[in-house]
Design goal:
mainly alpha; 2 domains; 308 residues; three-stranded mixed beta sheet; Alpha-Beta Plaits; Alpha-lytic protease prodomain-like; single chain
């Protein structure tokens, strides 16, 4: 409940600040006519749209599992990250277009002092907000909040690029610096957007997490050795707010089912407590004596099966 309340509060704050940033940046553009500030404002439009979708995703994510979604709705986090990454890239393309257009047509910025002041204010606010969202997202295990926080920090970089561009124009008198900084900002934004989209695709395609795999493998080895057991067929998938883990445990042929189940439950709890992410472990109990005979064909055709 605490995590749910903190993520909802953080998302509402992000949306409110997003609208405030948009107003400030549009005001700065009206004052200056700067290509880099226009790009910064365009990124804020995208950010507000992305936060609105993220807020919708967060609400859907909290819905319990149902007949149509027996594993819940937490995969929406990866859709949210992917859409946010795509919108970031669209904003970068718009910045590139405007930067080149203003450079070719020799359109210089104006009212540099006011523009610099407003943009500096947005940097300070977004830096604090981005740090808060990422920290809250990590503590709550929320990919949606983390992605939103990274987007906010991307906004900081675009605003910083706008300040650098306007500052160089003021110092040198060459208005081309405004467009050059706009193009540099666009490149940085594209890189961030690509990272979010890659994270989204990886989650939707159940790409393995090497760090989590190593932690689970070490914990299972430690716990099974305590009971003189072996394990194999370790698998796990990231569902956004929860990692689902499957593993097979091999017991002595003569153990009682009641005792095997009790030991398996102890191992599940110990492994869950030893990793730093929320995991739900499902164990499959097998007997060592006829295991190879029963599973010879299945394991031979399964590239993910591993005996430990």
């Amino acid at each position: 409940m605490l995590h749910a309340a903190s993520t909802t509060r953080a998302m509402r704050l992000s949306l409110a600040v997003g609208f405030l940033m948009l107003v400030l940046k549009v005001g700065a553009y009206v004052l200056t006519g700067s290509a880099s500030i226009l790009g910064d404002a365009a990124e804020s439009v995208v950010h507000v749209a992305a936060v609105m979708f993220a807020a919708f995703s967060l609400g859907l994510l909290k819905k319990p599992a149902d007949d149509d979604h027996p594993y819940g709705h937490s995969k929406i986090a990866f859709f949210s990250a992917g859409i946010e990454g795509g919108l970031i890239i669209l904003a970068a393309l718009f910045i590139i277009y405007e930067s080149v257009h203003r450079w070719i047509n020799h359109l210089p910025p104006a009212n540099l002092d006011q523009g610099l002041l407003l943009t500096a204010l947005t940097i300070a606010i977004n830096a604090v907000l981005g740090w808060y969202l990422i920290r809250t997202g990590k503590n709550a295990g929320s990919l949606i909040l983390e992605s939103n926080g990274k987007h906010v920090l991307t906004d900081v970089w675009t605003s910083l690029g706008a300040i650098i561009g306007l500052g160089l124009v003021a110092l040198t008198g060459w208005h081309g610096w405004d467009s050059v900084c706009g193009l540099v900002m666009a490149g940085n934004i594209i890189w961030t957007g690509y990272g979010l989209m890659r994270q989204s695709v990886g989650g939707l395609m159940d790409t393995a997490d090497p760090a989590l795999n190593a932690a689970l493998d070490a914990a299972l080895r430690r716990e099974t050795e305590k009971h003189g057991l072996h394990f194999h067929a370790l698998r796990h998938r990231d569902a956004g707010e929860m990692h689902y883990v499957e593993v097979h445990l091999l017991f002595d042929d003569h153990i009682m089912l009641r005792d095997a189940h009790r030991i398996a439950t102890q191992i599940e709890h110990a492994v869950q407590a030893s990793v730093d992410r929320p995991v739900l472990i499902t164990t499959h109990l097998e007997c060592q004596g006829d295991h190879d005979e029963l599973h010879q064909h299945g394991e031979a055709s399964d590239p993910n099966s591993k005996r430990a």
